[in-house]
Amino acid sequence: MAERSTAAVDVADNSGDEPLTAQADQSTADGVAKNRERDTDIDEAQGSGGADGLEKASPPELHSGHKLARRYRLEECVTRLDGFSSWRAVDEKLRRAVGVHILPADHARARSVLAAARSSALLGDPRFVQVLDAVDENDLVYVVHEWLPDATELTALLASGPLEVYDAYQMVTQVAAAMSAAHREGLAHLRLNPNAVLRTSSGQWRIRGLAVNAALRGISSDTPQRTDTEAIGALLYASLTQRWPYEDDAYGLSGLPKDVGLIAPDQVRAGVHRGLSELAMRALANDGATASRHESACTTPEELVKAIGEMPRIRPPEPSFTAPPDYQRTTYQQGTYGRQAPRPGAAQPVPTPPPPLQSRTGKVLKWAVSALLIAALGLGSWQLADALMEQGKTPEDNNQTQTTDGDDKSPVKPAAAKPIAISAARDFDPFGADGSEKPTDIGKVFDNNAATYWQTDYYLSADFGRLKSGVGVIVDLGRAQRVGKVTVTFQGHTSVELRAASGDPGAAPTTFDAYTKVAEAGGTTVTLKPGKELTSRYLLVWLTKLPLTDQGQYRGRVAEIKVTS
């Protein structure tokens, strides 16, 4: 099967350089990349830029405070290597921190870096650190990407020890799924190492430098899928053992003993999860070391995702509960405050309790209880006699009573709630760029099939990536009707508001302010009841908080909407 690496997209037509696109994948059991990820920061400092051997251009003279496009203010240089530099900067237009890679426009790899950045930006997968801009101007080429201040590199996490089993499982699951999606679009990473994988404060794993990091260093591979799969195996191995699965030390981790070969993680460290240990060995190029395990090697991220799916699911650990300390009685609480403490070992006489109710207070209490009992007996006898007298009345008396009271109006029982048919529905995204949110599936919200659903686009956080306040579905009841409640079934815990347009305006209002909030709730099956009587034709089911899916994305999924009177 042929595969293509766009770590550096073919731009021979634009620049005349030799394209860095990988050739057809000739995946074999031991196929590996030409530039296997075993380099360290020291290697980079010595100039191990890539396999193309091109002359390095001088890095542009830049300094803190310099502005690019009168918008990006450089703050701190974090890398200066091989003719390019990487900076932490501030986007003064949007007032947020960003990262910037900068290199001269005449750099041998400038065209390749631009093409790789643009290809990565088109992917739009939130599991990757997003490319925000790629510009060629004023003799400079620069790539602007997200800066995640709340994220921690895997390198820093491993500095304190191996990851917990559940954290390692989440890491390999999310990274493998993300890389599988990237390769389906023809994109490869080729520099997937502990510095490129980050964990956010919400527990989501994200990958930075897709295609761009390899293009900056001129790295290519004839087998990009195999290269990235082996890199994921190395990340899992390091997460389980706090060791780098090669002989050389790298990324602050000690390598394996020399001349021993690749050792399974559960043989390197006690207590390693057996299933994850086997998974790491299947992903690594280990010269047949997995043969004894009777499992085939994984040569692509997609095969790795399938192997993870076949494993028993690893559940998060139960939250620990610390029992409160035993209650300690003090000498004061025991009623001996101010008394002489007894000598240790001396037998203490046990005071004899007084006879019950022998004091004056006890006698008063006995008389009070007796009086209450007598009163209760008298009241009970009177009620019993009254009930017997009612039963002894003749039928004529009853008829007379009924005739006398016949003019009184009997209370009317409330009508039973009836389902209201939904005649139409449409998506509602008034704050989005295109004003639309997956309209093709909107009919699934009232098809009486909970297995189907309408879903939103994916976002970087539960609050829609802070891009908007929400999205929703407008339900048309055909005419103005009394609405008693609306039941919404979601996939995943979702926060939602019920809003209504007043009366029957004819056509559905197109502005958010035309809908008034009448109820709100959160959950997977939510019942929304208006606080007061509501008559309306158009209802808006407005999603305000989205759940995190198994793919590490935030998106809402509405399975069914039912309206009753």
User: In CATH, what is the homologous superfamily of the domain at 151-310?
Assistant: Transferase(Phosphotransferase) domain 1
Quickly give the CATH architecture of the domain at 151-310: Orthogonal Bundle
- In quaternary terms, these chains amount to single chain
Low-confidence stretches: 1-56, 288-292, 332-338, 394-410
- The computed structural class is alpha+beta
| Pattern of helices and strands | HHEEEEHEEEHHEEHHHHHHHEEEEEEEE
Description of the structure:
The protein has 565 residues and is an alpha+beta fold. Among the domains are: 66-146, 2-Layer Sandwich (Phosphorylase Kinase, domain 1), CATH 3.30.200.20; 151-310, Transferase(Phosphotransferase) domain 1 (Transferase(Phosphotransferase), domain 1, Orthogonal Bundle), CATH 1.10.510.10; 419-564, Galactose-binding domain-like (Jelly Rolls). It is 24% helix and 22% strand. The protein is built from twelve helices and 17 strands. Strands 10, 11, 12, 13, 14, 15, 16 and 17 form an eight-stranded antiparallel sheet that branches. Strands 1-2-3-4-6-5 form a six-stranded antiparallel sheet, with helices on one face. α5 runs antiparallel to α7.
Keywords:
565 residues, Transferase(Phosphotransferase), domain 1, 8-stranded antiparallel sheet, alpha+beta, 22% strand, 24% helix, 12 helices, Jelly Rolls, Phosphorylase Kinase, domain 1, single chain, 17 strands
Tell me the layout of helices and strands.
Elements: H1 12-15, H2 41-45, E1 67-68, E2 72-81, E3 84-91, E4 96-104, H3 110-123, E5 131-137, E6 140-146, E7 152-153, H4 154-158, H5 165-184, E8 197-199, E9 205-207, H6 212-217, H7 224-241, H8 265-268, H9 274-283, H10 301-310, H11 360-391, H12 395-404, E10 419-420, E11 424-428, E12 454-455, E13 471-483, E14 485-500, E15 516-528, E16 534-545, E17 557-564
Antiparallel strand pairs: 1-2, 2-3, 3-4, 4-6, 5-6, 7-8, 8-9, 10-17, 11-13, 12-17, 13-16, 14-15, 14-16, 14-17
